[in-house]
Amino acid sequence: MNAIAPVVAGLPRQPFEAARDAAAAWRGRCLDLFTRSEAAVSETLLVLAAIEGRGSTIKLPHLVGQRYDMLEMAASASGSFAEEGKAAGAALLEFRKHDMLRTRLAHGTFTVTLDHLGRWHLVIRVLAFRAGREARDLFATDESEAAELLAVLERDGGRLRSTLGQFRQRLRSA
């Protein structure tokens, strides 16, 4: 018996490839902003740790979240650098609002789709383990929302890097 298979016309690949590339570029730009801010936090911890006496409480942890926690602790009201670190602590708290986005971008799998006007939409799925159990996260955004997220991340990351740079400069000058 000969079966006739239906012929399915495929859509042109170019718009999908362009959308995938644009979403990947957005992801890359966001990750670059995170890594630049993480580097500023690490540089600041190095300066704090090098200060005679007060720096002895500063640890240099391997994981980024622990570095954020260490800087936050040092700049807190009860921390070794409470007086000089108020602005740095505030900028860090503001930037940490983006922690979940960082996790999604760094560890999520992406699906890019197009709407009828050719605008891309991004679905990010993250599978993590918390307390020995699976934890699934789903995040969706579109091209315009992603641009807004990038602008906020640029603003908050720039503020953090600038504030930490000033903080380091004041400590080196003292």
- List low-pLDDT spans: none
- Gap from first CA to last CA: 89 Å
Question: What proportion strand?
Answer: 15-25%
Report Rg.
22 Å
Please give the count of helices.
5
Indicate how many domains the architecture comprises: 1
What order do the SSEs take from the amino end to the carboxyl end, as H and E?
HHHHEEEH
Output the strand order for the largest sheet: 1-2-3
User: What does the largest sheet look like?
Assistant: 3 strands, antiparallel
- The helical percent reads 55-70%
Q: Rough shape? A: elongated
- The overall strand count is 3
Calculate the mean pLDDT score and round it: 94
Task: Indicate the structural class.
Answer: alpha+beta
